[in-house]
Structure formats: C-alpha cells, structure tokens
Design a protein that fits this description.
Layout lengths: L2 E5 L22 H12 L3 E7 L3 E6 L2 E6 L12 E5 L6 H6 L4 E5 L13 E4 L2 H10 L4 E4 L17 E6 L9 H5 L8 E4 L13 E5 L6 H5 L2 E6 L11 H7 L4 E3 L7 H4 L5 E3 L3 H11 L5 H8 L2 H15 L1
Parallel strand pairs: 1-2, 1-5, 2-4, 5-6, 6-7, 7-8, 9-10, 9-12, 10-11, 12-13, 13-14
Antiparallel strand pairs: 3-4
Length: about 325
C-alpha cells in the first residue's frame, strides 16, 4: 500500500490557529479534500502535515491530519510520495530526509516555479509549463486544473445581484480598482470578504456580506448572476475562486491578466474573458441564464478529475 505525505501551508501567521484548523479541514479545504481523494482512489495511506503547535486528527482509517513543530517528523511515516504544496523553506529538511520518495510540487502565487527539482510539477497555465520544463527538463510537468472544495455547490435562489466579487484579501493586485472603473453605475454588486477602501467608495450600490466561512459562501454568492475574477496577474496564480464560481454554477467574467489556463476554464458555456468590458459585461447580464458552468465543472474540473490527473502523472513518472 503506497504512502502519501501532503505538506500543507507553512505561513507563519496561521501556524497555530486553534483547532479545528480551517486550513487542515479535509471537508472544506480544497487542497486537503483533493489529497484525501488521491489517497482514496490510490487505495493508499496518507498523512497531511503542517508546521505549527502540536495537534492531530484521524480523518479515516487511511488518512491522518497532523500539525507539529518539526516537519521532519513526517519522515517517520516513510512516504513513497511527497506532495509539496508551497515550497516553503521548512519543507527542505524533510525532502532531504526522504530521498527515496517521489516528489510532487505545486507552488501558489509567485512560487509557481520550484527552487529545486521535483519529479512532478503542477503548473497553472501552458506558459508556466514551458518555463519549468526549460529549467528542469527531466521533470514531468503538467498544466493542472484546480477543482473546488466540496462545499461549493449551486444554491437555488432569486438573483438579487448582478455581480459578485469575492476576495479574502483586500490587496490592490486583486483588481478592485479595475473592476470599479468598469462596472456601470446601476450595477447591483455583492462583495464577499473583508471591508476594503475601494468598494467602500464605489459609485454603485454595494452589499457587503463580510468575511464568511467557506460553507456559507454559496448561499450568498448564488444570489448573483455573474462572478468576476480580475487580479492583475503579478502575484496570484491559478486563483481558486475561478473553479469555485463554476462549481456554484455562476458564469464568470475574467480579466485577461489572470494567470490560469483561461482557454480551459472560460468557454462559451462558462463565461467570457474580457475584451471590451462594457460589451462583455452587458452580454453576460443578458445571457447568464443560458450558460452551464456547473455542468462544465463536473465534466472537466471535479475533485475526481483533479485527483486522477495527479495520479496519472505520478504513475507515468514511476
């Protein structure tokens, strides 16, 4: 029985979140739920590790979730495969302690290209794949299409908003100004996330839902006709909100700067990549009900499909 070890985020600011730690929630966190599915489909054993104060939980007979101050303790598990999500410095000692393990890498944001060689590298778009292959020609590099956490499901409700914009981080690179400058003054906008200085001064009516738990988001977001993804592409890579909106059956309007495989995610059935913001926005407002983003999500981006793509890459590398 193969043993998988998954290394979750090691951001200093969220290492010691009191249990239950949301970043280790197998039922709600996209990465942990994906890893659990990989372990199940592979009929394997797995451990999810995160650096932090000691805490652990048994999710199933084949999967444990562990938080500890020394990541090298994970070597005691004797993993056959190590899935490094993030490429944080804390992980280096563990990788070096398990030279026999096959390694899989995904780096969010600016860390999309690993600082060392891995056997399998997951990238967000074809251009990234080309660059990683040029640097590590012996690695197996694939364009990986993220799924969404299982909590992101369609909710049948009345559409009371034209647009939903979801951003958990009030940072300029998320595209706040870009969006505000392009929406018409009569747009009815739902903002999910912390209060920010941009939407507080918007020239159109904005309803603030505030910071929500993941499982609360669909009940709010599904009140909108269209979701917008518009980061400037300088920091984010493969924003999770893109598959999450599709999973909630919400068509998307996507800024072309977004670093993702837009040709895969944005189709005539799921939304539009912005060419002329006014025209594209108006078209979606008129045709949103004819689109089928959830059907496309189930066909191309489900958790099972994401897990199988990683298992195939690992199998071929073996």
């Amino acid at each position: 029985m193969r043993r998988w070890l998954f290394l979750r985020s090691a951001h200093t600011g969220n290492r010691d979140t009191p249990p239950p730690d949301p970043i280790l929630d197998v039922d709600e966190d996209m990465w942990c739920s994906l890893f659990a599915r990989i372990v199940a489909l592979d009929n394997a054993r797995g451990q999810i590790w995160k650096v932090g104060s000691a805490w652990s939980s048994v999710y199933s007979d084949h999967l444990a979730v562990i938080r500890g101050p020394d990541i090298t303790w994970g070597a005691r598990f004797r993993p056959d495969v190590i899935f490094d999500r993030g490429g944080y410095p804390d992980y280096v000692r563990l990788l070096d302690a398990c030279p026999q393990a096959l390694t899989v890498y995904y780096g969010a944001g600016e860390r999309w290209c690993p600082a060392r060689r891995y056997d399998v590298v997951l990238t967000d778009m074809p251009a990234q794949r080309t660059e990683v292959l040029a640097r590590y020609p012996s690695s197996r590099v694939i364009v990986f299409h993220k799924s969404a956490s299982p909590v992101f499901e369609p909710v049948k409700c009345r559409k009371t908003f034209d647009v939903v914009f979801i951003a958990g981080r009030p940072a300029a690179f998320k595209g706040f100004n870009w969006l505000i400058e392009r929406l018409p003054e009569d747009a009815r906008v739902l903002r999910i996330g912390p209060v920010d200085p941009w939407f507080s001064r918007a020239p159109f009516p904005v309803a603030f839902a505030g910071v929500l738990q993941r499982r609360e988001i669909p009940g709010w977001a599904c009140r909108a006709k269209v979701g917008v993804v518009c980061d400037d592409g300088r920091h984010d890579s493969g924003p999770r909100i893109l598959p999450e909106l599709l999973a909630m059956n919400i068509p998307v309007l996507v800024r072309p700067t977004v670093r993702a495989d837009l040709a895969a995610y944005v189709t005539p059935q799921t939304g539009r990549v912005v060419e002329d913001a006014d025209v594209d926005y108006q078209w979606l407002q008129e045709h949103w009900s004819e689109m089928t983003p959830r059907r496309v999500y189930d066909e191309r981006f489900s958790v099972d499909r994401a897990a199988q793509s990683i298992l195939c890459a690992v199998g071929e590398e073996r």
